[in-house]
Amino acid sequence: MFSKEQILKLTQMKMPFGKYAGRVLIDLPEEYLLWFERKDGFPKGELGELMALCLAMKIEGLDEVIRPLKYKR
Question: Which domain of life is it from (predicted)?
Fold first, then answer.
């Protein structure tokens, strides 16, 4: 299960490393998240949990619902 805080973090936290460093998590391409999951799995801790949640949201098509929250701070 996920929390409201995690949903908001998807719209605020930036990817700290790699090809998409500096990009907000909800804006990461689905293909990148799928690749990451297949390669070695998501990182441990909060970042990995948020990346997994982000992928689940994208697969279900919910990222378009969440993305506008980026602009409401």
Answer: Bacteria
Q: Which residues of the chain have pLDDT under 50?
A: none
Residue 52 contacts by C-beta under 8 Å, 6 or more apart in sequence? 37, 42
Which distant-in-sequence residues (6+ apart) come within 8 Å of 12 by Cβ? 24, 70, 73
Residue extents of the structural domains in the chain: 4-71
Question: pLDDT per residue over 57-70, tens digit each?
Answer: 999 998 888 877 77
> Rounded to 10 degrees, what is the CA torsion of 66, 68, 72, 73?
60
Gap between the Cα atoms of 48 and 73, Å rounded: 24
DSSP state, residue 49: H
